[in-house]
Amino acid sequence: MRRTALGWAAFAATAAGGAALGWLGERRALRGVTQGDDPEAAELRRPVRGRPLTVESFDGTALYAEVLGRDDAPTLVFAHGFGLSQHVWHYQRRDLADAYRLVLYDQRGHAGSEEAASGDYSIEAFGRDLAAVVDAAAPAGHPVVLVGHSLGGMTLLAYVDQFPEVVADRVAGAVFLGTSGSDIVTGGVASTGIAAVEILRNSSVQRGFRALDRGARYADRAYAASTDLSFLITRALGLNANASPAHVAFVEQLVLDCPTSIKAAIGPLFTSLDLRAAAPLLTAPALVVVGEKDRLTPPAQAAKLAALLPDAELVELPGVGHTTMLEAHAAVSQLLRRFAARVFAAAG
Question: Is residue 98 classed exposed, middle or buried when 0-12, 13-18 and 19+ CB atoms within 10 A define those classes?
């Protein structure tokens, strides 16, 4: 139970705050618009499929990837966040395959990828998975642009940390969306005022674990099926108060689809993650994008990451939460298109 409790600490221990939101009169009617009135609902029911590819990682874990676009186009490799899947990049799959070759994969234990063959869900394992995807899916001798959201951005940093020479040779640029290099719990989740995380930091270990055990059980119930509470928690933490209900429901479903055991296995890494030493090793240009309303990896953390990167541009999107590629999909796709065009041109 301790492992489960810690696994939820970075995400679902926030159920206490979500519960308060859930009883402010915002009932299931919130999502009625997703059944027809919200045009984004119809859009998200038309998934953009790519050519399937299976990549074997360092420990034998089979990772599921898809490739879109022309094989001779410059390559962008996408890594998604905690509890999600490659389909969180729906709009980028739709909008960028005309000019770029897109390689998207499911992180280990998520969606179409296998659970870790070795049981390894460390950040180093995620970085080595990205290395395997780049090696298998990106044309040899051609530079790539890496794009990571949240855990995916941390995956990029772990890849840089473990393979700096390879990155220097192969990576033309990197984009970090909603990403922090350290202090994920204390800088992000704790900023929402969730008592469970404060208990873990300030109380005795025994009392802290008991509280988190209760939080884990509560969160397990909240995310056992789609409910008012799971919808509101998703909106409060993952997006913003004015987000499209269809976008909220889409993210909620991705989180529901990710097994609780996987979220519990991954969660502990957020309590001690520190990749600040990796950032200066990335000599290629970087773009750091953050939503003004991001509660999980707030703008202050994005600014710290940008300051550590040798060549970085920081963009803050007003009124946007953590899932920028959905909430501000047109702006994010445009930023990616312009950044990729610039760095690929510079790489020759």
Answer: exposed
